[in-house]
Amino acid sequence: MILNITDDARLQIKEMMKEEDADRVRLRFGVKGGGCSGLSYSLGFDYDVNEELDHTETSNGIPIIIQKFDIDVIEGTKIDYKQNMMGGGFTIDNPNAIVSCGCGSSFKAKAREGTPENC
Known about the structure:
This protein is mainly β and 119 residues long. The protein contains 2 helices and 9 strands. The strands form 2 sheets. It has a 6-stranded mixed β-sheet with strand order 4-5-2-3-9-8. The longest helix is centred in the first third of the chain and has 11 residues, at 7-17. The mean pLDDT is 87.
């Protein structure tokens, strides 16, 4: 399994999926260039799977799409959801990140540096 979704994240994602066509939608997780450290995470919903470019799996009951090109920099990543007095948000714990920005959404991986931008 490439991605590990915690119970708290699963509950939040399932709630958000209710706004979509829940029978067909999948969580798409990936990486794009940019951010302070060179790479940033991409998290959203998608209905389309490209059999040549995408890997699909299910984690904790959540159907997931990941671009095959991103697997080496996100394998073993855990997505959690934290709630506090200021609200809530997803947290991403990526064992492949060798440098992370203070914002929590930008990183650099040994396998790919990306394209750093100004914070």
